[in-house]
Design a protein that fits this description.
By secondary structure, the protein is of the alpha+beta class. It has seven helices and 13 strands. A six-stranded mixed beta sheet has the order 3-5-8-9-10-11. It has a three-stranded mixed beta sheet with strand order 4-7-6, with no helix packed on it. It has a two-stranded antiparallel sheet with strand order 1-2. Helix 2 packs parallel to helix 6. The N and C termini lie far apart (45 Å).
Length: 214
């Protein structure tokens, strides 16, 4: 389908909770359970929400439609962005949709790993999503991709085993703690990142971008 026809049909089916247009193909996922999807999505949202609370000029949401291009309109489990008024690369349309690529997208992939790491990855890459996180539940693994020179490269953890975002200063993730469900540890590590100089510099940059010109 084209994006316009996809939106028309989606609007005509209010009982449908999630559908995505990926490279012109409509994907309607099966119902998801708590232990292999819902809990993991909640943890990712909590981690990013904690960061947002300390970082004016950032915002995110879950299961939000993204208008990316004429053939693709994904609905990621979680997205996170620099707010438009703080210089972010996406915008919000008059009818309330996110238009353009947010800085970060996150997917919890159990049964959907086949297209989350292939077709959807290509869509995110082509449209300029700067960071893409995939939690492969059945594999007990987390992939974090960063956009470099038009391609996704895997972000490697540091010597302490922590992922550190290249876009959002101070956004640190203890992936091992997240995988074992230790949310308290995930937030402790994030708090350490929020105290670092990278976070302070990022907040200052967002504040400067948000100041009215002139």
């Amino acid at each position: 389908l084209t994006r316009a026809e996809f939106e028309r049909r989606y609007a005509a089916m209010p009982e449908l909770k999630k559908a995505e247009l990926i490279e012109g193909v409509v994907y309607v996922p099966s119902p998801v359970g708590f232990k292999r999807h819902g809990k993991q999505t909640h943890y990712v949202s909590t981690w990013l929400g904690h960061y947002e609370a300390a970082t004016t000029g950032t915002e995110g949401g879950d299961n939000t439609t993204l208008r990316l291009d004429l053939d693709s309109e994904p609905q990621p489990d979680v997205f996170f962005r620099i707010a438009p008024e703080a210089g972010g690369q996406s915008s919000t349309s008059a009818d309330g949709y996110v238009e353009g690529a947010p800085e970060l997208a996150a997917e919890v992939a159990a049964s959907s790993v086949s297209y989350d790491l292939h077709d959807k990855l290509r869509v995110y890459r082509r449209n300029g999503v700067l960071e893409y996180l995939v939690w492969r539940v059945d594999d007990e693994a987390i992939d974090w991709f960063c956009l470099e020179d038009g391609d996704y490269k895997r972000l490697e953890p540091d010597a302490a085993g922590l992922f550190r975002s290249r876009v959002f200063g101070g956004l640190w993730l203890d992936a091992a703690a997240l995988l074992r469900g230790d949310l308290a540890r995930v937030l402790v590590v994030l708090d350490e990142g929020l105290k670092c100089g990278d976070h302070a510099a990022f907040v200052a940059r967002l504040a400067a971008a948000a100041k009215p010109k002139g």
